[in-house]
Amino acid sequence: MNPMTSKSAGESGGKSGGNSGGAIRLVAAIAMTAWLGCAEPPAKTSRPQPIAPVRTAVRDEETRFFAQTVADLAAPTMEGRGPGTAGLDRARDYLVDRFGELALEPAFRVDGQPSFTQPFTAVTGVQAKHQTLEMLDPQGRVLTPAKQGEHFNALGFSASGAFVGPVAFVGYGIVDEKHGYDSYAQADPEALRGRVAIAFRFEPQDPTGKSLWAGREGRLGPWTEAASLVNKARWAAQRGAAALLVVDPPVQDHGDLKSTRYSFDAAPASIPVIHIRSGLFRAILAQAGRDPQSTLEAYQEQANRGGGSVDPVDGAVLRGRVEIETQTATLANVGGLVRGSGSLADQIVVVGAHYDHLGFGDADRLGPENVIYPGADDNASGTAGLLLLARRAVERSDRLADTPPGHQRGAAARTPVEDRRTILFVAFSGEERGLLGSSYLVKHEDQLNLDERSTVAMINLDMIGRMRGDRLFALGVGSGDLWERWLAEAAAETSLSLSRDPVAFGASDQLPFYNDKIPVLHLFTGVHDDYHRPTDTPEKINAEGGGRVVQLVDALLQRACTGSEPIAFVPDATAVDPHGLGMAAGAGGPTTAYLGVVPDYATLYGNDGCAIAGVSPGSPAQAAGLQAGDVILKWNQTEVGNVYGLSAALRTSSPGDPVTLTVRRGDQTLELQAALGRR
């Protein structure tokens, strides 16, 4: 599960919270649970449902099947199913074998041949091909050639390039209107121009090293988003810094250097960013004629107290160079079909679950590095549910194939059994790296092994293995006009207690389908302390509860596949996109600034701009003239490489700010003026 409702509570290199460095998001998942715990919306008026599905109980054998599948996918040999690992390839092959054993039809065509896999290329990480850092005297002579890994290490979101310049200390390097804090408030606008900025990691804290802000915001993690190193690099670059060096403050000086691999972020900085040890910083201060100990103590006291200014550390000049190389891998969705028949056969109901996880701990981890993150609940459980649903569907299809044409099941049935929709069961890859597999499928439906196709609904299973009592959460109920009724009926049949939320946003694999105007549901059993940690292991799975989720989804599938009319898409005017770009006012999120666009998640990564899938009515984006299909290239003078770049630019802005957006529209390049709103 990848709930990217914000770039996280964390001083990370980007998305994750706590001590990790890439995408986040335990806090976002908790926030999602809070949404789901709200009062249930009133039922919508729905047209009659023509089919009364057959009630099917959970069998003991299905519970064993569910538990065994989770154990298989979360086994050590699967290496946490991280992108680029041999374990993820083993999981792919495991699923291909299971789909074949279930007698599903291959879902894709690859090179003209039927295939269970849909391969695609994705960014899996970065490595530093080259990194140097030297201290020079005022005449340009090398005084101290620092050693990589001993004195410094380039961060994974660093820009590639060379730099040289005098040093300036900038405190925590934070600009945060919410907390009334600005490290540059008393500085001349040109004070940092051409200098190498050095900033403390983290944020204002008490003498014990505890954040002064995180508890106040109710954060589960130790730091707020203000501590993000990505944001610090952006704020320094906006003020003309040649590079940013970050150093642990005295109270947090544990001696560890952040790694390049685990500080990868999809929104790269525009300047080199390097983590240095405090010993190197002390040498820099000494070269400038400062007493290191007393200077560091004064720096921390002033930074914790608030505000600050740029302190030129003249007498010390730094020179360095960083070359970051992006690593890619071929990932694959795994899919199988249960073909429909009759007049509804070319309509598709998608059932999805992602099968990837964090491997040995990628940027989203909330625990230590270089250990296996099994991902039993996230999301071996959803994948097990997917397989179990596929098995049920095949069995039902086999039974119906033996039924004489025109025969009707049950007194309430009004539709011949030969009229039913096709079901696409698909296990997505790359979800943890930004919904890559589901986004790819939505953009490449022409690769499906179907001559005619029209996707009418999507049900997503993500983290369904930790049911407590009989509680189940359903997200996206408001995206389709029949979900509310169907869920109420299915919940009654399965004796489950449903918390229903109309909002379809929440960054799991239903999101690209929702953005493609398809009714979606996301089912899960709630977050827990093992989320994105090595402790998400198979023995903690409630397999019987997972089977009950399957029972409910099976009841939904029977309705979705046999109704005479498909469920109709209902756009959600209150939705919030998970990167804070703001579909509508009043929905909350990590920032109060509001633009009002739906990003195209095909541009989640890369450096070609952030494409726009939709514009919210009445939003600042619409007033500025933004249109679906536009690609935002610049936010004022800052390059926008992708969705994360636009999200980061918004998070560092305030309501009412005027913004010049450089936009590519077809063959034209436009400049549009927007005034950010408040949400």
In the CATH hierarchy, the third-tier topology of the largest domain is known as Aminopeptidase
Q: Biggest β-sheet: count, sense, barrel?
A: 15 strands, mixed
Quick one: CATH superfamily of the largest domain?
Zn peptidases
Quick one: overall form? elongated
Query: How large is the count of helical segments?
Result: 13
Count of folded domains: 3
Q: For the terminal residues, how far apart are their CA atoms?
A: 26 Å
* Count of beta strands: 27
Strand content: 15-25%
Task: Determine the mean pLDDT.
Answer: 84
Gyration radius, in Å? 26 Å
Assigned CATH architecture of the largest domain: 3-Layer(aba) Sandwich
Structural class: alpha+beta
In helices, the fraction of residues equals 10-25%
User: Regarding CATH, which class of the largest domain?
Assistant: Alpha Beta
Low-pLDDT sequence parts: 3-9, 13-56, 403-416, 574-580, 582-591
Descriptive report:
The structure is a single chain. The protein is about 25% helix and about 25% strand. With about 675 residues, it is α+β, with helices and mostly antiparallel strands. The chain folds into three domains: about 25-120 and about 330-560, Zn peptidases (Aminopeptidase, 3-Layer(aba) Sandwich), CATH 3.40.630.10; about 125-325, Glucose Oxidase, domain 1; about 595-679, Pdz3 Domain (Roll). The protein has a 15-stranded mixed sheet that branches. Strands 21, 22, 23, 24, 25 and 26 form a six-stranded antiparallel sheet that branches.
